[in-house]
Amino acid sequence: MLSDVMEDYLKAIYVLQTENGPPVSTSDIAKEVEKTSPTVTDMLGKLADRGLIDREPYTGVELTPEGEAVALEVVRHHRLLEAYLAEHLDYDWSEVHEEAERLEHHISEEFERRVAAALDDPDVDPHGDPIPSADLEPVSDDSVGLAECSPGDHVVITRVSDRDDEELAYLSEAGLTPGTEIEVRDVAPFGMITVHTPAGEQSLPEEIADSIRVRSA
Question: What is the pTM of this model?
């Protein structure tokens, strides 16, 4: 049996691998799980000893097939719970992440099956993040960060990061939600990105733009 903390680390590595590709650095993992680098280094040693990650000194880590399977199951639980909380319990999309974090390690496979059935087996959670299938196949993602786009690009928002409640509230108010088509109007050298949305123009700091994933419209 793995501890909840171990599962959290595997999930964090999976998310970082999905966004940036392997290997994943210790510093990035530390930021994701909000722990110090020495604490993360100690945990990575334990995960490597169990055959859940491959570890290259001074380079980073990558999930093994066994580690990826564990991570995919936790991610599936988390994103299904987010969808259920939003759709059936009237949670705002800025509230579901923390609740799902508390519950994801403690639901049974039968509960997972019933939640998925109640939601008609959704493909994405409220933030647009893809939900792994029941057979835990890795999920492909062809999106790019909004900050990587150029003026004149017409794109559709596919995903937004669920890591910051205040950012989610801001994006919701600005109408920058999954499925929204926008045009990149300007990318300023000091980091502001201006986009045209159905509700008008919005100027976004680069750190906000970094939390938005898009694909070509």
Answer: 0.87
